[in-house]
Write a structure and sequence with these properties.
With 973 residues, this protein is of the alpha/beta class. It is 36% helix and 14% strand. It has 29 helices and 34 strands. The chain is globular and about 150 Å long. It starts with a helix and ends with a strand.
Length: 973
């Protein structure tokens, strides 16, 4: 028992000693807390200093980066920083003395942890001694391949891609903008640029950035930093410092920066730290908006067009596969392809959806019918595309949304006259009704520009017209169906014989039934909310029921032009808000049965080609825009003086299409009465003599205020076969002057010439050159047509000229001048013809020189050259006039057309010119032309060579490889 007690006593003593020792140790930790804290801070400071020294080493040389071992060590230091910071926070909150036992214990533990952490920090500091060094050369890939889709079988995409490649090779072009509708294939083009081997050889770095709809500088920088694999640890996180870091990294490197899906302007200085691009670096941006490309200072713009039907069909077939091997399904598939409007995104989605139908013809037919009606129902595969296209629509303000939806009233791909469309927009209230018409048209052009820049509307080949793609039109109809204030009934060109049923039109705010075969209308159309009614070109519509308009008090636009109506019913008097009434080409219309004075808000009226007399409309003194014919003055007894009632007119167009005797009786009213109007801002009229025009100009108060009055003047006989200059060039210009059968230079006309944009000189005598009119009077001229002026020997004589000549001219057409020997004689002052894009020379039998000495260097913008029936032309570019011609001459020339030139032997003496933009050449009846100025390296964008196969067979070649290359481009007559 004593032994046991002794053992227990010894054990108790030992345990007690341990406890006392432990307490003493903890007490020591408490006493050493402050010392351990400062030691830890000291060790951490040494560690951070070593970390900073190491980072400085690889930051000094931008071509180097930290080794993997070093990067791991830096990450461990970063983690250690966090751990020490937490201990420091605890020290600051628990390190003060306290009487509480818990405080004493926690301080002891904290001191112990700090002591151990000091040892860890010191150990990590020792690990920071790298015997093999801390940096290695960077190994960032020049290109990160994306896996671009194949676009070789899509001509519009491949063409845009090739154009971009060619622009990237030009030293002076640093920024390129690719634009087009959503889903058109811009991203596919950009991806092909990224993956292109030629680009990889041309640039040291290719950087791809997809820009979000709401981009921030930080996000763009993060994307670029990730791409360049930059380390930004130890540097400030501000955008300015990151931009500087990116700029330093790219300094001295030739970079291609690809910015996809750009929705707003990006300041590359803020993002990448440079105001101008590094030497030989380039930027290509893709945007749905042309305006964004301009804002980003793009040097060249490339529009991506819809796929042609053939390309669309090929794409559809490849996606669908064997399912369309059946002839009946193939027929349906062809109609499906047509419905997709050439949009690659839509073609892909629809093809993938219909592929699921296999070879079931019933399901394919159902798919087609649903696709044709997707503006009113939900269709699988379409909704994704619709949501995609909605992005453009939702970015518009409410006014532009209304203008876009309104344009869907017209048939798909149908040409819509811009002036007419803007009048309708104004009448509908999309533009401020208080403005003058000219101001409203300016506002309308701003709206139109935004819609065309976004590809929601498209310009046609005729500049004064636009159209809407069928897919976008269906989207617009879908969007309008979701709005209570924009209910549309749209059935143009559907072959309707009968008016639609009541349930279709009773809720409509706008109805379009144009281009049908309607013969009758309902007795009344109970549409109190109807704003626009379009019935034009229903050629069999002869009568309108008496009460048809009874409920249309809100109607603002009524278009009945080119119908067979003979009168308008009395109920039209109820349409007191009507602002636009279009009756042109209603050849049988001779009277109004309604009280025209009731139309107190009517602003735009078109009665051209009707039998309506001025007496019928004489009380409409509030009309601002009137389009009429000479016949409206009265067929047998022309009414003089009646036009004076319209002295509030701002725009007047009088169409001349009758005998000279009748014309002469009317012109006095125009030159005296119209000249006195003070609100007139636009006049289109043919004056029989220059004296009549001069009298009008000299007495017009508007003209003499030097206002921006728009005009389309001519002095030709109304039966003249010479084309109207604007229609000849399809050019958007309202400042045109055409002189026909005149003589010499009338000093009184020079003032008009100074403000003329489009000038026609036809069958004029007494001048030997255009410059006789004074080159200083032609500074605004954009378009010039010279025809039948047989005393002319040259167009411009440059002797003694000390200023730019025709510096704004874009189109020059010279036709049927028997004695013309050259276009330019003498020296060419720098900047002359600098904007010339189109040059046409036709039926000039004595012409020998096209580009005289020094002229070709002034034509950097020339895109289209046509030479026809000029029997003395031997060389297009004469060697004797163009010695030492640089290889990049005519850098913008796209098309070259040479027709019936029997003496032509040469386009250029050899193949030394680059022809960087040439896409098409057409040759016909040029039997002495035996060589083409091409080789395997130049004319890389050439796509078509048109001519006779017999001519091609006689050409001489230096190299069969060139012949084979060009043979694949041939289209024979």
């Amino acid at each position: 028992m004593d032994a046991v007690a002794g053992a227990l006593a010894v054990k108790a003593y030992d345990d007690g000693s341990k406890v006392v020792g432990l307490i003493q140790k903890k007490n020591d930790y408490v006493k050493d807390l402050e010392e351990n804290y400062h030691k830890l801070k000291s060790e951490l400071g040494k560690l951070q200093a070593r970390r900073d020294d190491i980072e400085a080493k690889f930051n000094r040389d931008k071509r180097m980066q930290a080794t993997r071992e070093c990067q791991d060590w830096i990450l461990r230091v970063k983690e250690m920083d966090k751990q020490v910071s937490k201990l420091e926070e605890k020290y600051n909150s628990k390190g003060k003395p306290s009487w509480k036992p818990t405080s004493w214990t926690s301080r002891s533990k904290l001191s112990e942890r700090m002591a151990k952490k000091s040892e860890e920090v010191h150990s990590l500091w020792m690990d920071g001694i790298f015997e093999r060094g801390v940096v290695v050369a960077k190994s960032v890939k020049p290109v990160e391949k994306i896996g671009a889709p194949n676009i070789e079988d899509k001509q519009s995409l491949q063409g845009a891609f090739r154009n971009t490649l060619n622009y990237l090779k030009r030293d002076k072009i640093t920024r390129i903008g690719i634009w087009g509708a959503l889903g058109i294939g811009k991203t596919a083009i950009m991806q092909n640029l990224n993956d292109n081997e030629e680009m990889a050889k041309m640039f040291d770095k290719i950087i791809w950035v997809t820009v979000s709809k709401h981009p921030s500088i930080e996000k763009l920088q993060e994307a670029i930093i990730r791409r360049l694999e930059l380390s930004v640890e130890g540097t400030s996180s501000t955008t300015e410092e990151k931009a500087q870091r990116i700029s330093e990294e790219l300094e001295g490197k030739k970079c291609l920066i690809l910015l996809d899906e750009v929705c707003q302007k990006i300041d590359l200085h803020e993002v990448m730290g440079f105001r101008t691009l590094q030497k030989d670096s380039k930027v290509v941006l893709a945007s749905r908006s042309r305006g964004i490309c301009y804002d980003m200072d793009a040097d060249e713009l490339i529009k991506v067009k819809n796929l042609s039907y053939d390309d669309a069909w090929n794409m559809f077939q490849k996606t669908v596969g064997d399912a369309i091997s059946s002839p009946s399904i193939k027929r349906i598939a062809e109609l499906v392809t047509n419905e997709c409007g050439g949009l690659p995104l839509l073609i892909d989605r629809v093809a993938r959806t219909l592929k699921k139908n296999g070879k079931n013809e019933v399901l394919w037919d159902r798919g087609l019918r649903r696709l044709q009606r997707w503006d009113s129902i939900k269709v699988e595969g379409i909704e994704e595309v619709l949501e995609f296209l909605k992005l453009c629509y939702h970015d518009l303000d409410e006014i532009k949304k209304g203008c876009f939806l309104y344009s869907a009233l017209y048939p798909e791909e149908c040409e819509i006259c811009v002036d007419y469309l803007m009048e309708c927009w104004r009448a509908e209230g999309f533009m401020d009704y208080r403005y003058e018409i000219k101001d409203a048209r300016g506002e309308g052009h701003e709206i139109l520009k935004e819609l065309t820049d976004l590809s929601l509307l498209e310009r046609t080949n005729r500049i004064k017209f636009v159209k809407m793609n069928k897919v976008l039109r269906k989207m617009a109809l879908k969007m309008s169906s979701q709005r209570n204030d924009f209910k549309l009934l749209v059935k143009p060109q559907e072959g309707l014989n009968d008016f639609p049923k009541r349930e279709e039109w009773e809720q409509a705010t706008r109805i379009s039934l144009m281009d049908n075969q309607l013969q009758t209308l309902p007795d009344t159309l109970d549409c109190c909310n109807l704003l626009t009614l379009l019935l034009q070109r229903n050629m069999f519509l002869m009568t309108i029921p008496e009460s048809f308009f009874a409920s249309m008090q809100s109607l603002r636009v009524l278009d009945l032009h080119a119908t067979a109506i003979e009168s308008l019913p009395s109920s039209l008097s109820n349409s007191i808000h009507l602002r636009g009434l279009y009756l042109n080409s209603c050849n049988h219309l001779r009277k109004f049965q309604f009280n025209i004075e009731a139309l107190v808000k009517l602003e735009a009226l078109d009665i051209r080609g009707t039998q309506i007399s001025l007496l019928e409309i004489g009380s409409l003194r509030q009309v601002r825009c009137l389009q009429m014919s000479l016949s409206n003055f009265g067929m047998e007894n022309p009414i003089e003086g009646e036009i004076s009632n319209f002295n509030s007119l701002e725009e007047l167009s009088i169409e001349v299409c009758s005998s000279k005797l009748w014309w002469d009786k009317i012109v006095d009213s125009v030159k005296k009465e119209v000249a006195a109007w003070e609100k007139l801002t636009s006049l289109r009229f043919c004056f029989p003599e220059v004296d009549c025009l001069e009298l009008f100009v000299s007495t017009s108060p508007v003209w003499n205020k030097n206002s921006c009055m728009t005009f389309q003047f001519a002095n030709d006989h109304p039966d003249s076969t010479c084309p109207q200059i604007l229609e000849s060039f399809c050019y958007l210009s309202n400042y045109s002057l055409k002189l026909v059968d005149g003589n010499g230079v009338n000093p009184r006309m020079l003032k008009q010439l100074m403000v003329t944009y489009a000038f026609g000189l036809i069958n004029h005598r007494g001048v030997s050159r255009l410059s006789d009119f004074g080159v200083e009077n032609m500074n605004r001229m954009l378009v010039c047509l010279i025809e039948g002026c047989n005393e002319m020997e040259t167009i411009i004589n440059g002797e003694g000229i000390t200023q730019e000549v025709l510096k704004c001219l874009e189109h020059l057409c010279i036709n049927n001048i028997l004695n013309l020997k050259s276009i330019w004689q003498g020296p060419v002052y720098a900047g002359s013809l600098a904007q010339l894009k189109n040059l046409t020379l036709s039926r000039c039998p004595e012409l020998k020189k096209i580009f005289s000495n020094g002229m070709i260097q002034q034509l950097p913008q020339l895109q289209h050259l046509r030479v026809e029936e000029c029997g003395q032309i031997e060389e297009i570019i004469m060697e004797s006039e163009n010695n030492g011609l640089e290889a990049n001459a005519l850098p913008s020339l796209k098309t070259l057309v040479l027709l019936n030139l029997p003496e032509l032997t040469s386009i250029w003496i050899d193949d030394s010119l680059e022809w960087p933009s040439l896409q098409r050449i057409k040759v016909s009846t040029c039997d002495k032309l035996k060589r083409l100025p091409f080789n395997n390296a130049n004319a890389t964008k050439l796509r078509f060579i048109e001519g006779q196969e017999s001519w091609w067979g006689k050409l001489v070649w230096k190299d069969d490889a060139v012949k084979q290359r060009l043979r694949s481009l041939c289209i024979f007559d």
